[in-house]
Amino acid sequence: MNHPKRRIYFAVAAMVAVLTSALAFLYAKTRAYDESRHFENLANLREIEHLDTHWELDALKSRVGINTHYDALVAASPEFHRLVAELRAMVAEGLTDAPSALEQSIEALDRSIEQKADLIEHFKSHNSILRNSMAFLPTAADDVLGLVDAALAKTAKRPAGGMRRVPEDTDDLLLAAFIYGHDGSEDRADKVEAALSRIDADTHELPAEVREPLDLFAAHIRTVLREHRIVIGLLNEISAVSIHRHIDDIEALLSDQFGQASIERHRYGSYLLAFAALLTGLLVPAAYSAIRNHGVVKRINRQLQDANETLEQRVRERTRELHAAQAELVDAARHAGMAEIATNVLHNVGNVLNSVNVSAGHVSGRVRASKAAGLARAVAMMNEHAAELGEFLTQDEKGRLLPGYLAKLSEALVAEQAEILDELGRLTNSIDHIKEVVATQQSYAGASRIVEPVRIRDLVDDALRMNAGSLARHDVTVVREIPDLPELPLDRHRVLQILVNLISNAKQAMDATGGRTHRMTVRAELVDEGTAASRLRLCVEDEGEGIAPENLTRIFSHGFTTRKNGHGFGLHSCALAAREMGGTLNAHSDGPGRGAVFTLDLPLTADASLKPCAPPPLPVPLLVPAAA
Amino acid sequence: MFCQPLRLAALVLVTIVTPALAAPLESEPIKPLPTSLNADPLRAALGRRLFHEPRLSANGAVSCASCHSLDKGGTDGRDRSIGFDGRLTGVNAPTVFNAALNFRQFWNGRAPTLEAQVDAVIQHPVEMGSKWEDVVAKLALDPGYRSEFARSYPDGVTRANIVDAIASFERTLITPDSRFDRYLRGDADALTDEEKAGYTKFKQYGCVTCHQGVNVGGNMFQKFGVMADYFARRGNPTEADLGRFAVTGDADDKNVFKVPSLRNVALTAPYFHDGSARTLGEAVDIMFRYQLGRAATPGDKGAIVKFLETLTGEWPRRPK
Q: Angle at CA B286, nearest 5°, toward B285 and B289?
């Protein structure tokens, strides 16, 4: 029942997992290369392009002197680094497949930027030199011309040779250099060099004070020539380093990828649509079956409800049957209880019969040893001497003794008769007791009880007497602690029955210890006198074998005994009888070998005698193997 | 026609406003220093401690501050500095002040950033001679450093964080508010007439073609000895004299150096990578001769030196 259900759950869970992952996969595929990243990359590329354009422009501005410092050129480098690093990170993050071409393009871009930076560094250095030399040229030319004039003024003769040509050549050279500085073409450079060589040719003819500034002027011209070529070359190289080309490459790759990603996304978008359609398709039969299932569930519910009602009815019937069975059981138990009572009664009768036996034995012993035989002998003797009876009674030695003997004999016979009558009285008592016990059994159902005023002392004496024979045989000293109590309303026979049992038990308990003299104490007292709980307490205390603690509660159970030939219902019936009278019977012992006290408490209030007829449940009979 | 009153109003406005505003000098080749580079103050404080930390060197003999004393214009006043084991460094120690504004670090520009410069100096066999693992281990043993690093950096004491902290500190070592900067910002009275004349000469002679921008230099390379061979005249060429060539291996880069900043130049003698110029006058002479290839009149040179002295900025404990 359980396994197929679990299997279905697994199947459903697996299906949900498959569908969910398919959905997630398709969704991820449509998001694999998202637009915002693509356009961010493009913006980044635009920014690099923009920066590059400005870089070149700043270099040109520096070249023509619009920019008077290089901070702008320097500031570009870290910006490039930042942008390329961003691009790299973005591309590395967003790439799914074939990233190498893109990464290579970015590397190439980075290399180009580095190369351009290097060229620009060189440009800055050379441009500075060029600009300084260019700036110095007019001053240098003026210095030359001034010194030529001074030298000429000093000599005060017409200038000749080199000195004559120098001012003109200097001006020519200055002009050529300026034109070259602005034009930069190689034929202008040739003109400058031609002018320079003309001056060089004349230098040796010049006085030292003129030659020195002229050399300086020429040196700066040469510097201009050299640096100008370098600067122009560097500027050409700078514009040749095509950052744009790399940017275009990267953009093409990115766009390509984006295009592919878009196509793929569209494809996966349609897959997603198809998948959604599939899910919808699945949903329809599921919904249909759910609706149908709902009907089925409703029907089954109804059936279940019906079944439930039938079941309840059946349960009610069964309950009724059970009640009947229980009543039968109670009846049976009642019968069993009656059997128990019968056993009880027989036991009690047995106990009393013991006394009957003793009394009968006593009477027959008395009769057997009767002095009546002596009377017969005296009568025979008188018959022998019938003739001379007077003489015999007066003269004969034997005859003289006869009247005395007869007198004594009659005394003895009277005593004997009294004794026998006494014993017969006891016998009658016992038989009465038996009659009572039997009557008790007969009256059990009706709990008819005869409550009569009883003197406790008499009651105890009766009980002791019933056990007198065996008490004497077993050498038991009985101590009676009975105060002078008024006559109390008691069910005499039940109390007597309990006392007899307790005394008999005590005797037997002491019997088991053997040897020493035994003492039994029978005590009576009134407890809680004058209150509603006022009761009579009778105690039978012995010095016998005692009771093990675990047995204290069990000894009142039916069938419990520690004696080899015990029946296990003596104390049980006593407890029963005590309870019928509204009282209790308790046992106490300090342990095996330390004696025991049985205490019978009987209520003395009038209503206490009215107890329910059915005996309250007693402990379940236990069959305990005799401990003997 | 209706332009006439407008033009008049503009003229009146300009006439009223101009003296009050003291307009900044916009088109000058030199720009005033910013007042702050926005370094993280916690990290900078840690960097200050590290800057004075001799445990960065192999034997605990020198700290950054040994060669870049903040009391001596961010340098040590020596031709060449003394490394952790007593050997001399290859070049004169450049000032640490405003170094954050240089486009590269070291005379030959081999470090693109302050961080790379710190990293290189700590491992330099002459300068600090340390191994990073030793430095990190030594600092990590110090509970003070451990807690201070933990406050600024999630990963505590590491090579990168030590470097970053020192660089952060160095970004606070800028010296704004020099008299010249005040002049650039429009305070015409910040300079004397002679100093203003010196600045004009500085531009006219062409010093400014290299020493320009916010840091008055520090943003380009230049060959030392453009118009004449400085090293032949000086003698005793060293490897350090090769300059940038040591970095690029390009023959064109021989004797090429980073143009040093002239900020606080009056306090950073001796001058040049070899510390060969004892005074500003001497340095200006050499520059005229070898870089500009011309001579200046003594009056012009004196004025230029006066101008250079106005580039000294303000910072706590600045020597007067």
A: 85
| A219: nearest CB among B103, B212, B227 | B227
pLDDT tens per residue across span B99-145: 999 999 999 999 999 999 999 999 999 999 999 999 999 999 999 99
Our CA-based measurement puts residue B209 at a distance from the nearest CA of chain A, in whole angstroms, of 5
Give yes or no: residues B112 and B30 share one domain.
Answer: no
Q: Do B293 and A121 touch (CB under 8 A)?
A: no
List of residues 6+ apart from B88 with CB closer than 8 A:
B80, B81, B82, B126
B4, part of any domain = no
Give the domain-ending residue among B148, B170, B192. B170
Residues of B labelled catalytic: 127
Residues B208 and B156 in one domain: no
Structure tokens at A56: 């070149």
B62-102: pLDDT as tens digits? 999 999 999 889 999 999 999 999 999 999 999 999 999 99
Q: What is the pLDDT of residues A304-357, one digit of tens each?
A: 999 999 999 998 998 889 888 877 876 776 666 666 667 777 777 887 788 888
Among B219, B229, B262, B287, the strongest candidate for a mutation testing the A interface, having the largest count of A CBs within 10 A, is: B219
Indicate whether B240 and B290 sit together in one domain.
yes
Paired tokens of B211: 């020493």
**8 A C-beta contact, residue B189 and residue B310:** no
In this structure, are B217 and B157 located in the same domain? no
Domain endpoint, select from B170, B204, B235: B170
Kindly determine whether residue B294 and residue A140, on different chains, have CB atoms separated by under 8 Å: yes
**Same structural domain for residues B195 and B135?**
no
pTM: 0.61
**Alpha-carbon gap, residue A180 to A173, rounded angstroms:** 10
**Spatial separation of the C-alpha atoms in residues A475 and A462, rounded to whole Å:** 19
Q: How many Å apart are CA A53 and CA B137, to the nearest integer?
A: 48
Do A125 and B294 count as a contact with CB atoms less than 8 A apart?
no
Which CATH number characterizes residue B65's domain?
1.10.760.10
Report CA-CA distances (Å) from B115 to B44, B98, B163.
13, 14, 6
**In chain A, which residues touch B (CB < 8 A)?**
68-71, 73-74, 77, 118, 121-122, 124-125, 128-129, 131-133, 135-136, 139-140, 216, 219-220, 223
Reported as a single tens digit per residue, the pLDDT across A133-158 is 999 999 999 988 888 888 888 776 67
Contacts of B219 in chain A (CB under 8 A): 69-71, 73-74
Which residue does chain B place closest to A72, by CA atoms?
A: B213
Q: How far apart are CA B95 and CA B69, in angstroms?
A: 9
**Residue B292 to residue A132, Cβ atoms within 8 A:** yes
By residue range, what is the domain housing residue B117? Answer: 41-170
